[in-house]
Amino acid sequence: MKIYLEDVFKTSGTPTHTFVKPVEYTKLVVALRTKGRGLVVEGPSGIGKTTSINKAIEEIGLLASVTSLSARKKEDVEMIKLLPEFSDMGIVIVDDFHVLPNDIKKDLSDFMKTLADEDSESSKLILIGINKAGDSLVSFSPDLNNRIDTIKFEANPEEKIEEMLTLGENALNIELNIKSELISESKGSFHIAQMLAKETCISCDIIDNTSGISITDTSLETVRSKVIQELARLFYPKARAFAIGSKLRKEGRAPYLHLLHWLAISPEWSINIDELLSQHPEMKLSINQVVEKGYLTKLIGENPMLQDVIHYDDHSNILTVEDPKFLFFIRNILWNKFAEQIGFIGVEFSKPYDFALSFAGENRDLAESLFENLTDREIAVFYDKNEQHRILALNVEDYLAPIYNSEADFVVVLISSDYPKKIWTKFESEHFKKRFGENAIIPIWFSDTDSSLFDESRKYGGMTFDVNAEFDTEVSKIVEMLSKKLEEKRRDRAKKKEVNSPQDE
C-alpha cells in the first residue's frame, strides 16, 4: 500500500503513522476516566496535548459523548458561556481556554468546583491551555486546586522524539541521515520534529514509501534554511509587529524587542517578566512602562495577527509563545540584523537610565511633563516621584548619588532661579558636575533666570525654556531635541561597536 509523506510526517492534525504516547499519557488516561472531576491540561503548543487527549478518549471508548469547543471561535465562546447552566453535558473539551475573558474563566472555575463537589457522573469539563494556564484558573478559586487534576505537558524527552521519527522512517521505508540533529533541533516538540523531518524528505525527493531512496542525503543547515525561509513569509511580519509595538521609537529602549528576544532564548516557551527584570535592571523602566500602563495587553489584544502566536496573562505577568513554528522562527533570527532591519539603533544598554532629571520642586510641572513625554517614547528616565517606592527605607543619598554620577547617559538640569537654592539640587549637582566634560550634562535654562546662576552650565550647549510661551509647545520642543540627542548617541555607539568588532574573514 502506498503511504504518502504528508500522512506520515504531519504538520497539522492528529498523526496516524507517527503518534507517540508522551510521558504524561498514562496519567491522562486515569484522569479522563475519573467521573466529574475537572481536568486541566497545560503546556506549550506543539507538544502533543490535544492529540494525546483525542487518542486517550478514543482508547477509553468515550468518543461518542465528547463535545469539543475552541475558545478562539466566536460561536464556540457563546456555547462555553452557557456550560454552567447544563446539568448533563457529557464530556466537554475547551481548547485554548487561556484566551477566554476573565469573567468566563471565573465562571468555568466555579462550575468545575460544583461538578467536583457533586461528584457528577454525567458531566466532565476538560480545559486545554498553555503553560501556567491552570494557575490563572485557580487564581479565581483558590480552593479549586484540590478539586481538579492538572497535567503539565513538558518538552518531550529526546527518546520520545526519536521514537516518533523512527515510526516515520519505518512507514516510508527510509533512514534519516540527520536524525540525531533533528532530535536536538526540535527541542522536545513533536510538531517541530514533524516539520523538519518532512522537509528533509522533500529535499531528497521522497514523497511516499515507494520513492526508491533508502537513506536521505542532506544537512541540517540545508533543512533549517529552507524551513526558516518558508516560515519567514508568515512570521517575519508578526515578529516585526510585536518588536516595534504601537510605533517604532528609534531613540527608545525597544522594550517589545527585548521581550521577544527573551522569549526566543528562553529554554521554555514562556517568560515571567518580573523574574527577567530582576536579571536585566537596565530594562526595568522601559518594560514596566509598557506593562503597567497596559500597552502590552493592548498591543496583543488589538492585533489579531499577534493573538495566534503570543499570549500575555496580565495577572501572572507571563508572556508565552503559542505557535511552535513561530518559536522556531524567532529562535533562529539573527537578532542584531533583525533589530537593524526594523529600524532600531544600538539596542544593548549598559546604564539603567537614558536621562536623569535634576530640578527644584517649584519646577515639578515641567519635570513631570518631560518624564511622561519621554517615557511614552520608550526612553528610560529617572524622575524622583516615579522612584519613591524604591527609595523607601533606603539611605536617599546612597540611592541617588550613583544615578547622577554614572547610571544615566545624560543628566537634564532644569535651571530656574530656584535651582541653586535647594539642598537636594546642590547634592545632585555635586555628583554630576564632573560629567560636564564628558558631554553628559544637558542644561535647560528658564528664560526668566539670571544668566549668572549656575555659570558652569553656560559653557556647554543647552536649551531655553520660554516661560512666556505655550507650555506644551515648549515641552514638545525639548522632548524632540532630547530624543534626537539620544538617537545620535545610539548611532555613535553602534558605529564604535561595529568598528571594534572582529571582522569575519
UniProtKB/TrEMBL annotation:
Xref: SUPFAM superfamilies: P-loop containing nucleoside triphosphate hydrolases, Toll/Interleukin receptor TIR domain
InterPro entries found in the cross-reference section: AAA+_ATPase, P-loop_NTPase, TIR_dom, Toll_tir_struct_dom_sf
Protein's GO biological process: signal transduction
Protein name (database record): AAA+ ATPase domain-containing protein
Transmembrane segments: none
AAA+ ATPase domain span: 35-158
